[in-house]
């Protein structure tokens, strides 16, 4: 007997941070997304065109990941891939929003940045 699969829809990815509102403000500047929920320890952003969003939660025991991680370093558990038309222009925008270019860049056609809480995200050329 085959059971039918229930309706499942990805709502959002959640990033921990020392301050949910501060990290959400960075991604709001970076992506231009709208705030849908704003509580002291929880913020959700949504793209104006719909789709899955990003949520942020304050975690008092947050440990900043290390990129790239070495032995004994806190590992990144997730990163965001963001398609762009121009790496230089998008990179300048990311830095103006508060991102830091990572010291280690593993690919020529991708730029790794760190958000203010240390989460890596990649800008890559859209196909």
From TrEMBL:
Species this protein is from: Micromonospora zhanjiangensis
Name of the protein described by the UniProt record: VOC family protein
InterPro entries in UniProt: Glyas_Bleomycin-R_OHBP_Dase (IPR029068), Glyoxalase_6 (IPR041581), VOC_core (IPR037523)
Short name of one Pfam family: Glyoxalase_6
Gene3D superfamilies: 2,3-Dihydroxybiphenyl 1,2-Dioxygenase, domain 1 (3.10.180.10)
Domain spans labelled VOC: 9-127
């Amino acid at each position: 007997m085959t059971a039918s699969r229930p309706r499942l829809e990805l709502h959002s990815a959640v990033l921990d941070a020392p301050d949910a509102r501060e990290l959400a403000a960075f991604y709001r500047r970076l992506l231009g997304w709208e705030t849908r929920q704003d509580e002291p320890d929880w913020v959700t952003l949504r793209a104006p065109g719909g789709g899955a969003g990003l949520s942020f939660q304050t975690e008092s025991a947050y440990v900043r990941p290390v990129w790239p991680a070495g032995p004994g370093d806190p590992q990144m558990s997730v990163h965001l891939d963001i398609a762009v038309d121009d790496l230089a222009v998008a990179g300048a925008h990311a830095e103006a929003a508060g991102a830091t270019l990572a010291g280690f860049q593993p690919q020529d056609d991708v730029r790794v940045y760190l958000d203010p809480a240390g989460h890596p995200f990649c800008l890559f050329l859209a196909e």
